[in-house]
Amino acid sequence: MGLCFPCPGESAPPTPDPEEKRAKLAEAAERRQKEAASRGILDVQSVEEKRKKKEKIEKQIATSGPPPAGGLRWTVS
């Protein structure tokens, strides 16, 4: 009994630097996100490439502005 406090001659374990602790937590969170994103996916690289390609196309559409007036028209004969 009486094991709740360190002995008088011992010092408490050093606390990590706040910046170091923040970096480790961020790294762990990123690792968890990657693991969760790849769960159930057999070819992660292929999925990432498709996602990047889709984002690139969406960005091109967004930067090109609205389509010009007078696009294709369907005529009924």
TrEMBL record:
Looking at the UniProt record for this protein, which Gene Ontology cellular component terms does it annotate, in alphabetical order?
A: endoplasmic reticulum membrane
Keywords of this entry: Lipoprotein, Myristate, Palmitate
The record, for InterPro entries, names: SVIP, SVIP_metazoa
What biological-process GO terms show up in the record?
A: negative regulation of ERAD pathway; negative regulation of retrograde protein transport, ER to cytosol; negative regulation of VCP-NPL4-UFD1 AAA ATPase complex assembly; positive regulation of autophagy
Region Disordered, as annotated, extends over: 1-77
Q: Compositional bias of type Basic and acidic residues: which residue ranges?
A: 18-37, 47-59
- Membrane-traversing stretches: none
Q: Which residues form a coiled coil?
A: none
* Name of the protein described by the UniProt record: Small VCP interacting protein
